[in-house]
Amino acid sequence: MLTIFLIVLLILVIFTLKYVFSSPESNPFAKDCREPLKKKVYDEKTKNKVLKQGFVASKVPDNLDAVIIGSGIGGLGLGVLLAKVGKKVLVLEQHDRAGGCCHTFTEKGFEFDVGIHYIGDLLGDSPFRCMLDQMTNGQLQWEPLEKAFDHVVLGCLENRRSYPIFSGSARYLEELKKRFPGEEKAIDEYLRLVKKTEFGSWLFVVLKLCPLPLAKFLIHTGLVKHLSFFFKMAPRSLRDVVNELTENKDLRAVFTYIFGTYGNKPKDASFAMHSLLITHYLNGAWYPKAGSSEIAYHMIPIIEKAGGAVLVRAPVNRILFNNAKEACGVSVLKGQEEVHIKAPMVISDAGIFNTYENLLPKELQAMPGQSASVNDLNNLLCFLKIFTPLQLFQLLKRYNHKTAT
């Protein structure tokens, strides 16, 4: 077993090094794209010219490389990455503005967000900060929240308890121990498990890059659990892990409070996924200056610069397929008429259930194995935020150097 373990580990190292030092032509992070900060735009009409470009057939670029359904951060993010390697992309949004959870609206002169409330892991030159800078050409500015960026409030009015969540590992531990005397061991062990689990997520990224047979071999043989603590903790629920650490119900609530961000109750949430989110906010939280609409506002021009477009009020009613059952475009409903848009690549950011049930032809939904695969999924709000150290390795060296000089 040890021999197999070492052989697999060697293969992963070789594959990783090959990826890191491969040709940069197809790497959207191959160069530092940060530009000098432009003057901040606050005028709503000016911003709407970028965020609310209505769909008409004449605005569809010719010779598209890809069509993306949905302009949430996933759709826009992928559009930016493709644009940075020279691809012409069309992003279609059924709403009247682009941005998904980055939408904002104004009421009586005040701007309100509908989704994003804060972002973590932006301290210094973190990989995540570097990635966001590259995907907005360095135009996003961030304001740190207070050190106690969250408060867990428990109990009814006459017996209300408030537990602040502080940024920084040392302060996080110190403040929790003040409020839960006698639970020091449980608090230390919780954070240790969280950090160890998150550290092991590197293998999750590598598996996505590996050839499929190798990835399946690692999973089915159980080697992933020996290579990474992340996979060992992935099947364990957040509730079970926390309940083993302490009997204190308030402390259990504090350990698990952030489950609302990813939508699964502690009994259904993977401790591994929960660990990624806790470490994401361990160094604090930040909010984009001038509001969350700034994120989409600075991503869309990058797509346009490569010849693409982001068009709203463009409801896609179906994905088009050729005789070989390959996606070849989309159909947009414009009034009572359909506008067909052809592209060799179609990506849906409209959600797996919406895509499967509403955008695919019935005959493709009925293909062997398709319905079973979808039925295995829970219709819950889930996400995975992955650091991409392999893809950002070369860029970070230049990024840190420029920051230092």
UniProtKB/TrEMBL annotation:
The broad enzyme category this protein falls into is oxidoreductase
Q: What is this protein called?
A: All-trans-retinol 13,14-reductase
Its placement in the membrane is given as: Peripheral membrane protein
Q: Name one GO biological process term.
A: small GTPase-mediated signal transduction
What EC number(s) does its UniProt record assign?
Answer: 1.3.99.23
Write one Gene Ontology MF term: GTPase activator activity
Q: Which Gene Ontology terms of cellular component type are present?
A: endoplasmic reticulum membrane
**SUPFAM superfamilies according to UniProt:** FAD/NAD(P)-binding domain
Looking up PANTHER family in the UniProt record yields: ALL-TRANS-RETINOL 13,14-REDUCTASE (PTHR46091:SF1), BLR7054 PROTEIN (PTHR46091)
The family assignment reads: Belongs to the Rab GDI family.
Chief subcellular location: endoplasmic reticulum
- What keywords tag this UniProt record? Endoplasmic reticulum, FAD, Flavoprotein, GTPase activation, Lipid metabolism, Membrane, NAD, NADP, Oxidoreductase, Signal
* InterPro entries per UniProt: FAD/NAD-bd_sf, GDP_dissociation_inhibitor, Retinol_saturase
Q: Name one Pfam family in it.
A: NAD_binding_8
Leader sequence residues: 1-22
Q: Where in the cell is it found?
A: Endoplasmic reticulum membrane
The record lists the catalysed reaction(s) as:
all-trans-13,14-dihydroretinol + A = all-trans-retinol + AH2
Cofactor(s) this protein requires? FAD; NAD(+); NADP(+)
